[in-house]
TrEMBL record:
GO terms for molecular function: undecaprenyl-diphosphatase activity. It catalyses: di-trans,octa-cis-undecaprenyl diphosphate + H2O = di-trans,octa-cis-undecaprenyl phosphate + phosphate + H(+). This is Undecaprenyl-diphosphatase. The chain crosses the membrane at residues 49-73, 85-107, 113-132, 152-168, 188-209, 221-242, 254-270. It comes from the Bacteria. The keyword Transmembrane applies. It comes from Paenibacillus konkukensis. Its EC number is 3.6.1.27. Catalyzes the dephosphorylation of undecaprenyl diphosphate (UPP). Confers resistance to bacitracin.
Amino acid sequence: MLSYWVAIIMGIVEGLTEFLPVSSTGHLILTQALLGIPEDNSIMKTFEVVIQLGAILAVVVIYWNRILLLFGLKKDPSRAGKKKLNLIHILIGILPAGIIGLLVNNWIEEHLFSPKTVLLSLIVGGVLLIIAEKSSSRKTAQELDDITYRQAFYIGLYQILAVIWPGFSRSGATIAGGMLSGVSRGASADFTFILAIPLMFAASGLSLIKSYKLFTPDIIGFFAVGFVVSFIVALLAVVTFIKLVSRMQLTYFAYYRFVIAILFAIYFFMM
């Protein structure tokens, strides 16, 4: 069952959906159901963490210069004397979700990782995307460096929705939260991608430490294929999304979520 084809399929799904507002976790759970893999398969749970690391590594590559600026390892003369995004913004943005995740992560994995939960969260998350897109709030932060500490905190609060509800979409929650907090769609997406790096590395690292015994010689190749595929696909997906987000409304992603939820609801009803 756990062939290289499964690794490639899951890697593609993860890479395509991790940073789009459609929920990679939700798509992985639904894909796993389609492939006939049990929900409680411990190897697949670890595999999902591995391919998630592949996707987040793609963001590190794309935003490498911005990361260097955040840590003061590179200077930007054009921002001299002006406010700019810094590590405090990142810390404020990840704390709410990080704290909640530590408190309820095990319970959520045991009780909420199911196709039915995902279908409902796809719909509710889609509604939030439409609300954010239709919001008339004035955008006070057009660029990434314009984001205030308060806006970073609000975005962090919205991120909790994705932590406690599999299938809601971390990027969808944070981009929508940013727009509802007065941040432009493009700046919200950029902040979402950067915010994902420490949060996902921490969550993935913790999960891998717990399941390190599963990394046996006969399964390493399966993990490696998924990791590489996820990295390459995510690299292409993020670059494409960055170009589209400034002119593509979130409502299109919301409609996609509704269609996927309806199709899978029909599929599960007919099973």
